[in-house]
Design goal:
Helix content is about 35%, strand content about 15%. The chain has 12 helices and 8 strands. The longest helix is centred in the first third of the chain and has 18 residues, at about 90-105. The protein is globular and about 55 Å long. GO terms for molecular function: 4 iron, 4 sulfur cluster binding; catalytic activity; metal ion binding.
């Protein structure tokens, strides 16, 4: 894995402090999960460089992200859904794949052209998904058009990516970059790598004939609403300049269980981003030479990105419409009186510790 600078591990400070808190929070979870069933599977539509595809999204249940087991990211609760013991056998992972194929056969009229595989960690980390399983999955989906697999940049290797490209698949590596600002990634997200590592991963993927999809996190803890908007606008611009990066998926932060964000939320120290902020970033970056999309999870709820409650569904529909058409004019069709409150928050909110409006 990338090596952080020494000071971030200074006892009681930086990442050491974050990780200590995160380990204590995560220790409260006592749930267990079936290693032969995926965490989630669903059908959707996604915009790609080759157009809009019906997609089959698979979240494999693995032993979980190794960084999360050290403490991990302040907002990520996915490791809480991982199988106990740190590893899952090849046969069990392939049973999960079959479960997803059965779901697709029951719910869809035809096979999805796009396959998206996540592990709540790194698909290319062989401690989560072994080489035998990775190659079997490449073979299983060789009749599809495109595949997306998620990984931290450390594990993005030209030879691994080539296994999918050589199977005839347009291949994209989804990297949880979160932000192009190294300080925000380190101090707000508690993620250890630098933007330069993301650039290196993009180069590895491109050398194998693949591409990169950057995942950004809108409004991690310790940022005001205006700072979050500016960070996303800057991050989209920097990602667009990285060769091989063709898509940016901006994920508004939501409050997941067993996370530092949840602790802050319960202490009135965190509010998820406004959907107006999501719309603002999408509209203002529409001219960048990269596909920019967003899928606000839990929209309209207190724990998810939300406005006033009256306009949340309309804003969400506009965001989804933009994802597919990349036309910023869709946002002109959505208005609400609460925009005035959002404007005041963006202008006046000066501290992360007490959100100006809930």
């Amino acid at each position: 894995m990338s090596t952080p600078t020494p000071e971030v591990y200074e006892q009681g400070k930086g990442m050491d402090a974050h990780n200590k808190v995160m380990r204590e929070v995560r220790s409260r979870n006592d749930a267990s999960y079936d290693p032969r069933e995926p965490t989630r599977v669903w059908l959707d539509e996604d915009n790609t460089p080759d157009g809009v595809y019906q997609s089959l999204t698979i979240i494999l249940n693995t032993g979980g992200c190794r960084w999360a087991r050290a403490g991990g990211c302040t907002m990520c609760g996915y490791v809480a859904e991982s199988v106990d013991g740190g590893s899952v056998a090849h046969e069990d992972l392939m049973a999960q794949i079959q479960y997803c194929l059965d779901h697709e056969a029951e719910e869809a009229d035809e096979k999805a052209g796009l396959i998206k595989i996540y592990t709540s960690g790194s698909f290319l980390d062989e401690r989560e998904v072994g080489a035998e399983t990775r190659r079997a999955i490449a073979s299983e989906f060789a009749d599809r058009d495109r595949i997306v697999v998620e990984s931290l940049p450390d594990f993005v290797d030209r030879a691994k990516v080539a296994e999918f490209v050589d199977a005839g698949l347009e291949t994209d590596i989804a990297v949880g970059l979160e932000t192009a600002t190294d300080r925000v990634r380190r101090d707000c997200v508690n993620k250890y790598f630098d933007f330069a590592d993301f650039e290196d991963a993009a180069a590895q993927a491109q050398a194998a004939g693949g591409g990169v999809k950057a995942y950004l996190l809108m409004k991690p803890p310790f940022l005001t609403e205006s700072e979050a908007i500016e960070d996303m606008q800057r991050s989209v611009h920097k990602c667009a300049d990285v060769e091989g990066c063709h898509t940016v998926s901006m994920n508004p932060c939501n409050v997941q269980r067993y996370t530092m964000v949840e602790e802050l939320f319960h202490d009135q120290g965190y509010r998820p981003p406004w959907l107006w902020s999501v719309c603002e970033v999408l509209e203002s970056t529409a001219d960048e030479d990269v596909i920019v999309v967003s899928d606000p999870v839990g929209h309209g709820s207190d724990r998810g990105p939300h406005n006033c409650g009256e306009c949340d569904d309309r804003a969400q529909r506009a965001i989804k419409d933009f994802d597919l058409r990349q036309d910023p004019s869709v946002f002109e069709q959505v208005t609400c009186d609460c925009e005035a409150t959002w404007d005041a928050v963006v202008e006046r909110e000066a501290s992360y510790s007490l959100p100006l409006a809930r």
